[in-house]
Design a protein that fits this description.
Blueprint (H helix, E strand, L loop, with lengths): L29 H20 L7 E3 L5 E3 H17 L4 E4 L4 H4 L4 H12 L7 H9 L7 E9 L1 H5 L5 E8 L2 E2 L9 E4 L7 H11 L6 E3 L3 H7 L5 E4 L14 H9 L3 E3 L20 E4 L4 H11 L1
Parallel strand pairs: 3-4, 7-8, 7-9
Antiparallel strand pairs: 1-2, 4-5, 5-6, 9-11, 10-11
Helix pairs in contact: 1-2, 2-4, 2-5, 7-10, 8-9
Bound molecules: adenosine monophosphate and magnesium ion (MG).
Adenosine monophosphate binds next to loops.
Length: 299
């Protein structure tokens, strides 16, 4: 998962628009929104029952523990994914074999009642079936570890609800169609026509996020946007080094990439301005090559 905090309310209810308010996941893809939402719901559940999980533990054949939380989270996530993406398969760690044993009646009931905190209509048979959806296969599938670090959960240390989407063998990251692109608020600070050609070439369906200053760099470094570019208003314009130096470091330290619009490293030895560079391009790293290709296409 990415670094978004759990939303207080559904992220999709926020309208897109200019400035920082547009940053919140209004422009994430539906898959990312659903994943974020259901993982947050799962974590609310595990947080609520963390203290009771220990006496709902069974030991698997590899001697690792599995708790009512593992089963309940898997059921919850599987149910939501089945509803939202009925054609997607799920590959998840647990299955309901042990819970279906006649002797597991008590455990079964506890798992079902935990799931009902989020899905009040769920009956026990449905809960077991949801858990067993985790043995799926296909070219597009979700991968779930309902509790990564069960011992951490039991002992009050760290654990993770880990959910990812694999499409054609690749764990899906930032999709250019949902790329959130930052640009200057001031139109005269850039070449708006070239920027909008590049946005079309990138394939982003999201409105650009217009912001002032290196606040854009901070937002990119924080993972709240994917691409930041400045198309100079004319061929004579070069950025001042103080408008890029600190922000570039933040982006690179956060794992992103910074170049000019031709893909060259920024050359801070050319004086007070970046005289040996043309424009500015920064990204989360994943989308950098796609952004460079879009810039080339934009001319
Ligand atoms: P931004 O908010 O990204 O446009 O960046 C703000 C700073 O970039 C300004 O304070 C200027 O130093 C500089 N800047 C960017 N583009 C231009 C431009 N076309 N003309 C003059 N200064 C610019
Ligand atoms: Mg300035």
């Amino acid at each position: 998962m990415d670094s978004h905090p759990c939303p207080e309310r559904s992220a999709s209810s926020r309208p897109p628009g200019d400035g920082p308010d547009a940053l919140w996941s209004a422009s994430l893809g539906r898959e990312a929104l659903v994943a974020l939402d259901v993982v947050c719901e799962a974590v609310r559940l595990t947080t609520a029952i963390q203290g009771q999980a220990a006496d709902g533990t069974i030991t698997k054949t590899d001697a690792s523990p599995v708790t009512i939380a593992d089963f309940a989270v898997q059921a919850l996530v599987a149910a939501r994914l089945a509803r939202e993406f009925p054609d997607d398969a799920l590959v998840a760690e647990e299955d309901a074999t042990a819970l279906r044993q006649p002797s597991a009646e008590g455990l079964r009931a506890r798992v079902a009642s935990m799931v009902r905190r989020s899905l009040p209509e769920a009956n026990t048979e449905q809960v077991l079936d949801w858990i067993d959806r985790g043995g799926g296969t296909g070219s597009r599938f979700w991968v779930l570890d309902p509790i990564d670090g069960t011992k951490g959960l039991l002992k009050g240390r760290q654990y993770v609800v880990a959910l990812a989407l694999v499409v054609n063998g690749v764990v899906r990251a930032a999709d250019p169609a949902h790329a959130r692109v930052l640009c200057s608020y001031e139109e005269q600070h850039g070449d708006a026509a070239r920027a909008s050609r590049a946005l079309r070439a990138l394939g982003s369906e999201e409105p650009p996020i217009r912001m002032d200053s290196q606040a854009k760099h901070v937002v990119l470094a924080a993972g709240e946007a994917d691409v930041l570019w400045r198309f100079p208003p004319d061929i004579h314009f070069h950025d001042s080094i103080w408008d890029c130096a600190a922000g570039s470091l933040l982006i690179e330290e956060a794992g992103g990439r910074v170049t000019d619009l031709a893909g060259r490293a920024l050359d801070f030895t050319a004086g007070r301005r970046l005289l040996r560079n043309h424009g500015f391009l920064a990204s989360n790293g994943t989308l950098h090559e796609a952004a460079l290709a879009a810039v080339r296409q934009a001319g």
